[in-house]
Amino acid sequence: MKTIKHITLLLFILATSVVSAQVKFEAKVSKQKLGINERLRVDFEMNQDGDNFNPPSFSGFTVVGGPNQSVSNSWINGVRTYKKTYSYFLAPKQRGNFIISQATITIDGESFKTTPVKIQVTGAVDIPKDPNDPTYLASENIHLVAEVSKTNPYLNEAITVVYKLYVSPKIAVDNWNEIDSPRYNDFWSQAINTQGQKVQNGTYNGQDYRYLVLRKAVLYPQKIGKLNIEPLSLNIALRVPTKRRDIFGSLLMTRVNKTVSAGNKTIQVKPLPEVGKPVDFTGAVGSFSFDVTASKTELDASESLQLKVSATGNGNLKLFKLPKISLPSSLEVYEPEHKESVKTNLTGMKGRISDSYTIVPQYKGKYPIPSISFSYFDLKTESYKRLSSDEIVINVLNGPSNSTNTSEVSAVSNNNKQPVVLNNDQFAFIKTKTDFQTIKPSHFFKTSLFWNLLLLPFLAIPLAIVIRRKKASRDADVYGNRIRKADKLARKYLSSAKKSLGKKEVFYVALEKALHNYLKAKLHIETNELSKDKINSLLKEKQVNNEVIKSFGSILQNCELARYTPIDIVTMQEDYKKAAKTIALIDKQAR
């Protein structure tokens, strides 16, 4: 009987250990279907403590809160219950079907994963109107509004859209970030800089609010019919009051994350009227002046002039083309250079556009540039207007005449053929006689220059032999070469110090730098990492005389002391000579 009790107790302990050994790690969500203006809570729960918790990426959502960690540990009837939770609060970025992917954790050296969870995000849903609900309070006291200047513009007429964030004095905004930026499809758009905007006081639905202008944009519709202006959406962190009060009687605030949207705006774009539309109309809408100017009207053949066609005013300046000029073929015309000097503000584009033509006449004569017309649609009178330039005559004073050109110019100006009058001087500009002169033959052979060049190599041979012998003798003088090399090194490293003689601080800084650079090149070391003792030991290894080493050290010491003691130029010169001599000695003695 006693044995049975022991076996029963053992089985109970084994069963308890097996149950407790089962690890649970799972993901739980507050809801699997929510509106885009709602929040989703995700809890990752485990019944045993673990390490290296790795959450999923939460693709399609913005983490607005978390991770918040909580631990529950209790004993009930001798059985231990443990639960650890990581909580996240998510805001959907857009509508659609999403998956909360797997989270991982390591428990007792083994890796565990959660099961993916499917989430469906729908359009905005109605939020229960609970006066005590912080989310409801936030929605009633903060508004994002898109103000459109005109909802029924003409094609290519400028309209403005201004986004304002209205905040009630009852709540406080901590920060915000854009989660959806508007794309102005079927519009030419230009954003207006809003940096430096200040909070202003205003009213919304008859109540006092503060507001801030977040965005401004100028839009030119490029299609007729109904066009959609996409909304701007923000995720805002704010604080709203609660029913609770602190010990001083002030209302306590709670933090809320709120998604607000400006909403879609639809405008109806009207087509430009067909009645009275000029044939040469190129789409200019606004109010303009038109001008055609020439840089000069009198010049010679092969010279150039600039003909500028320009439109100035307020309208869609960047969205239409200026009329082309028509000139006789005798005038060489290059492709125009287009220039724009346009500023965009809330009233639209304003400034000037121009096409500058380079014209080069080939023959003399008079060339009329006929009047050029420019038409546009005037928004004030809602009618088409035409502007015309004056005729310009280009007078080419000097240059060859051309009968073809004469008849062509006459045809352009009068549309009638004119007789061509020829005279005997029409080819006077062509030379018929030359200025050539006879040159007497000369021979380079037997001249003094010829004999000097011939004998020069023979005279150079003895000179080369002498130079070669002197070089060989100098190369054999090992000791002398060392002295010369050392002197050259000293001059190289001490050149900057020599230039600073008389300027105490600059001179000794340059002198110290020269000594360090020499050591770096000679000993292949970085002197800023070594002590004076280490430098002395390295010089001894190179078999440098102790006196020379001491002299080198004293110069470095002088460089340091010079910053704090008065020194005259005589001492500087002595230190310079001593440094040059020491560098030369080290270079001779170092092995």
Automatic annotation (TrEMBL):
Keywords: Membrane, Signal, Transmembrane, Transmembrane helix. It comes from the Bacteria. It comes from Flaviramulus aquimarinus. It holds the Pfam family BatD. Residues 1-21 form the signal peptide. The chain crosses the membrane at residues 449-467. InterPro entries: BatD. This is BatD family protein.
